[in-house]
């Protein structure tokens, strides 16, 4: 019985930012739990290669949409592809993001940095929810999972715009959880800093280790279990919540 609670058989999941890192790990775990997938990413080669690997390794149906989530027509493209392939969807994972690419004090940032992070981290998830939540109508156990950040809960030096945008995504999560209940659950997943093998990739990673009781960085696949939980019937009474998977770092 416990195993069945975490199965995703018969579900269709949309995952953005799915060609690498945490997005790919979530997609892999979903497929292994029985879900079919619609994967979204900007890089055609990487996305296609990963989708082929998933199909071969899990036997699940996997379709792709190569697109930037900030483009105005992307939600419509995803919805059209989902309708053409399935009767609806059950899970949306808003994982694609922008860091802004600029480090420094908030008041030194150009407007273009704010435009970039807000478009990718707030507006895009909102538009995707607006377009795709209607495809969840009449399907039992539907859910949205927004990938947030510890920087949205406590200020992080040098990445203020990113943190502000993730704080907004967390509030969007809570707002939608209240408005869409009881038909659709909406929760957030807050990963810690990750690297492919859990080892520091640069000095900034080394500097973080003293803040992490587990004494290492996370691996992308270690973030995926919480996403499976939030997508599954095991979380049937969980909405408007955030699950931290950060090695005990005190945000």
Automatic annotation (TrEMBL):
Pfam families the record matches: adh_short_C2 (PF13561)
Coiled coil ranges: none
Enzyme class, spelled out: oxidoreductase
SUPFAM superfamilies associated with the record: NAD(P)-binding Rossmann-fold domains
GO function term, MF aspect, one: oxidoreductase activity
Its EC number(s): 1.1.1.-
Keywords (A to Z) from UniProt: Oxidoreductase
Family: Belongs to the short-chain dehydrogenases/reductases (SDR) family.
Protein name, entry field: SDR family NAD(P)-dependent oxidoreductase
Species: Rhodococcus baikonurensis
High-level lineage: Bacteria, Bacillati, Actinomycetota, Actinomycetes, Mycobacteriales
